[in-house]
Amino acid sequence: MLSGLFSGFMVDTWLQASVMAVVAGAVGFFVVLRGSSFAAHAIPQGAFTGAAGAALIGANTLVGVGTFSLLGVVAIARWGRRGQHDVVTALCLVTVLGIGSLFLSMNTEYSEQTFSLLFGEPLAVSSSDLLPTALLGAGCITMVVVLFRPLMLSSVAPELAAARGIRPARIELLFLLSVGVATTMALPVVGALLVFSLMIGPPATARFVTDRPALAMAVSGALGLITVWVSITASFWSNWPIGFFVGTFAVVWYATGRSLARWRRKPGPVLPLELAGAGSR
Question: I need a labelling partner for 222 at 20 to 30 A (CA). Which of 7, 106, 164, 252 fits?
Answer without folding.
Answer: 7
